[in-house]
Amino acid sequence: MVRHLLIPLIAIAIFLGVWSAAAKNIQTSLGELPGPVAVWQQAGALLDEHISERAKAAAFYQRQEERNAAKLAEDPAAEVKIRPYTGKPTFIDQIGTSLFTVATGFILATLIALPVGIACGMSATLYTALNPLIQIFKPVSPLAWLPLVTMVVSALYVSDDPLLAKSFVNSAITVTLCCLWPTIINTTVGVASVSKDLLNVSRVLRLGWFTKTVKIVLPSALPLMFTGMRLSLGIGWMVLIAAEMLAQNPGLGKFVWDEFQNGSSSSLARIMVAVFAIGLVGFLLDRGMLLLQRRVSWDRNAVLR
Amino acid sequence: MTQDRQRTGSTRRRFIKHTTLALAGLLLLGGQTQAAKLEKEELKFGFIKLTDMAPLAIAYEKGYFEDEGLYVTLEAQANWKVLLDRVITGELDGAHMLAGQPLGATIGFGTQAHIITAFSMDLNGNGITVSNAVWEEMKSHLPKGKDGKPLHPIKADALKPVIEKFRKEGKPFNMGMVFPVSTHNYELRYWLAAGGIHPGYYAPHKGDTSGQLKAEALLSVTPPPQMPATLEAGTINGYCVGEPWNQQAVFKGIGVPVITDYEIWKNNPEKVFGVSAAWAEKHPNTHKAVIKALIRAARWLDENDNANRAEAVQILARPQYVGADVNVIANSMTGTFEYEKGDKRAVPDFNVFFRYHATYPYYSDAVWYLTQMRRWGQISEGKPDSWYMETAKKVYRPDIYAAAAQELIAEGKMQAEEFPDFATESGFRPPQTGFIDGITYDGRKPNDYLRQFAIGLKDKEQI
């Protein structure tokens, strides 16, 4: 108990102390680097902004309803609809947008990476064929993918009334491209290293290819597959923030970039709030994956952290 | 008199049209505002974090867009290139643009796309800032007034020896501007050239779009909000940008604004509201409604001798718009400008949004931009005067503006006196003086105008 609670608390206290002391001595052109107190205040301010923006949204909807009612009274056949709020997305909205984007990109990547990884693990020939490509694309930064993705999406994704915003598609695909690789590699390794004994058993039992994959290969490769997915999600989250900053797509990255551009006296503190939020969300995502992994893992003794 | 009769005539025609088309009740209630069906009601406009985006913010905050039945989202963009590309691809319905952008895109300098404008967003609003080190050296070459402060306007003559010193030491003299076809690029070049400093040529036909051929001062692109940070990092020695990014340099103590664009050319045209020609063709009524809202917003900004500016500053300081501190934005928006720290001077027309017919898209403004594109080689071959006129007419659309204005007058929201006389307006301002080098500009004679410059391409000259 003491170890699990006290030691982290002491560490955090020391961190805050060092931060606070150091911040006072760093003079930027936007004023002093904000300390913990300033950041805490801005976090409160951001929450207040969220609440007041919600009130404005409510008024906006009410005005629309009144206008629509007037329109209908005038002409019962008139087409009316309620449009989404056009005000600015708040910090909390931005967190939601980022989470939704990363989830889309990650699920898309997993849907591609798992079958490819399994196929590569089961066929040495396929693996040899794809390995160079995987190795070359793996280290590519999102900043290199983004311009390509943006141009290609603009060229291919044309519709008058798109279901998904182009910026969302851009970010999601960039996330997908960057978080395919750890899942593919780990799945391949996991599938390839299924114990020979188990494979022999399947041979003795004369299991079909499908049954063998589902009953023997997948369960034993599962821990490594999950490791790959956890790595992928972590990368995806980092990539997304960078993509949003660069392409001005809605989300936390855009929030950070806008604040950097604003250059107001509270900008640095607000960016720090975002940094903590990004870290916290990333941590929670990772914990979530871990929980899922524990749920599906057959090896109850494996130490997962 | 004739104009009055015309107006009554058009009202009567519209009245007859309505009675035949619609129910009498509908006419009574909505005959004015719902006169035309909007093709699109949900719109997204882009802007760059600069105080001259104010008409957009005001039209949103004061409900002028909603009055027209428009649901508008405003979105800050990373830089002018991203903004233009997004208007072209249709991600944005329209945007706050550099006046040179619709012209440059339409003639195919940089990205090729037909962009038009029916609304000019403001006059003036820029400044040129140099780093503290450069200012220290410039100071010794400046004439001083009785109070010991340097005499304004400061000419680039004082910068020339500084640049020569840089060159002797083998160091490049770098300056930032915001986009190759930006007002800032042309203003900075104008100021430098007026002081005998060559800012360099473009040669797009040879694939050279750096704009640094034969240059004594090397100009390069930096997005507006990044200017102070880039100056602070020492990458550039000075820049030309819109507000609040000159005042920000004063507040941060990293640079000194030496001149405003008002002193380079009194009441020069600045930003425009641009949409793609295809969009405008598809959404004529929506377009008109947008222009109506923007005209009202611009009027609000200048009303009663700038009485609303303080409120405008509060709005612009919100993080979703410009986001800089209130006192930084207020410095220029409320009619003063702070040069060297503590040297605050009155520049009542620093940023004009409505008076002097600021919102009307004059052909002569378009032609001026085209002359500067020609002067610096962005247009590589000499063109006849008629070409300038045709290009201006392709991009600047006072007809749409006039239609919007007339609706506002008919609805009683504006007075006819607040606009140019549409019946007689030619779209050309009378020959303009008020340039720092004393040259007169007549929009009807672009080639004659170009011939007056000592530095710059003219007639058939080519790089």
Characterization of the model:
The complex is a heterodimer of chains A (305) and B (463). Chain A has 305 residues and is mainly α. Chain A is 78% helix and 1% strand. Chain A has 11 helices and 2 strands, in the order αββαααααααααα. Chain B has 463 residues and is of the alpha/beta class. Chain B has helices at residues 2-21, 24-30, 54-61, 64-67, 80-89, 100-107, 132-139, 160-168, 183-194, 227-232, 245-252, 261-264, 277-282, 284-306, 309-316, 326-333, 363-375, 385-395, 398-410, 446-451, and strands spanning 42-47, 71-76, 94-98, 115-120, 123-124, 126-131, 174-177, 201-203, 208-213, 218-221, 238-242, 255-260, 271-276, 336-338, 344-346, 351-352. In chain B, the strands form 5 sheets. A 5-stranded mixed sheet of chain B has the order 2-1-3-13-4, sandwiched between helices. A 5-stranded mixed sheet of chain B has the order 10-7-11-6-12, with helices on both faces. Mean pLDDT of chain B is 89; it is low at 1-9 and 15-35. The chains are: A mainly alpha (305), B alpha/beta (463). Chains A and B meet through helix 2 and helix 10 of A and helix 2, strand 2 and helix 10 of B.
Q: Main attributes?
A:
heterodimer, A: 305 residues, mainly alpha, two-stranded antiparallel ribbon, 11 helices, 1% strand, B: 463 residues, alpha/beta, five-stranded mixed sheet, 16% strand, globular
Write a short abstract of this structure.
The complex is a heterodimer of chains A (305) and B (463). By secondary structure, chain A is mainly alpha-helical.
Poorly predicted runs of chain B: 1-9, 15-35
Largest sheet of chain B: 5 strands, mixed
Largest beta sheet of chain A, briefly?
A: 2 strands, antiparallel
The order of strands across the largest sheet of chain B is 2-1-3-13-4
Global shape of chain B: globular
Structural class of chain A: mainly alpha
Whole-number mean pLDDT of chain A: 86
Question: What percent strand of chain B?
Answer: 15-25%
Greatest contact between two chains: A-B, 27 and 38 residues
Instruction: State mean pLDDT of chain B (0 to 100 scale).
Output: 89
Contiguous uncertain segments of 5+ residues of chain A: none
